[in-house]
Amino acid sequence: MVVSFFFLPWQKFTLAGTTDNPCQIRHDPPPTEDDIKFILNEVKNYLSPDVQVRRGDVVSAWCGIRPLVTDPNAKNTQSIARNHVIEVSDNNLVTIAGGKWTTYRSMAKDAVDAAVETCDLKPKNDSLTDGMLLEGAHGWTSTAFIRLVQDFGLETDVAMHLSDTYGNKAVEVAQMANLTGKRWPVVGTRLVEDFPYIEAEVSYAIKEYACTAIDVMARRTRLAFLNTQAAEEALPRIVEIMAKELGWNKAQQQHEYERAMAYLNVEMGNQCKASLMQLPDNFTEGERKKYTARFHTLDKDKKGYITPIDLRKYLEHHGEHMSEDQLREMLNEVDCNKNGRLELDEFLQLMCAVKSGAWANIRLETVLSIGERKAIPTDRSGGGV
Question: I need a surface site. Which of 20, 205, 218, 383 has the fewest CB within 10 A?
Answer without folding.
Answer: 383
